[in-house]
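dude i think i finally got it to work??
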Amino acid sequence: MRSKSRLLGWLGVAVCGLALASAVSAKDETVLHVGAAASLREVAEKMGTRFGEIAPGTRVELSFGASSELAAQLRAGASMDVLMSADEEIPRALEKEGLGDDLHPFTGNRLVVVASAEIAGRVKQPSDLAGDAVKHIAMPLPAVPIGRYAREWLTKAGLLRAVEARVVQTENVRATLAAVDSGDADAAIVYATDARVAKSAKLAFEIPPSQQPRIVYVALRARDTKQQKLAHRFLEFVVGSEGQRLLKEAGFSAPGAAAAP
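look at this
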């Protein structure tokens, strides 16, 4: 009994020691807060994990949403060290406002049209979006990059006025895709990389390169970050060989180039 009690005592000490070590480790850990466009979710998570491995003692904490919403959070004083936007306009505006610097264009994308499995076979060309098969089209407001890009293309195709009454408003590109996946919308214009992670929505057709808007993702360092050097190091990682490899594997392209099919 005495030896058993002694063993339990040692186990208790060991558990307490591990808990204390864990607490100390967590306390010494440096957290880098990164706000990333919703379309970057999977690849940003991989980047965060990998950066934590090459920068020991660092943990990347990610938050996702529309680039415009993340910018609004930054303007409101949210804790954010790096912003990864799905466009150029938002980072440039933040830079002019004195809220960010160290801008890095880091990847590109392209638009495609997805539709529900039930009607995907009937949506093969732009004009089909104004046809009888499509009752509802999911799309965010123009302030959201995907909403602006989609309207730019629809305007070029001469379809914006014809489909405006069918628009179901969404918050960001992943919510747009989810609306088609769930059956709340019949079709949507999304990034090619998002179509790759669709649950039930099907690729209806690809928009020709000549009709694609210029889509460039730009990351910046928040002005008020307390992690100036670490934030810059993360940005350098994103535009470096390993970050670019992860982006390419996820279907993204070099800045200004069309994303891979």
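The mean pLDDT is 91.
im so relieved honestly
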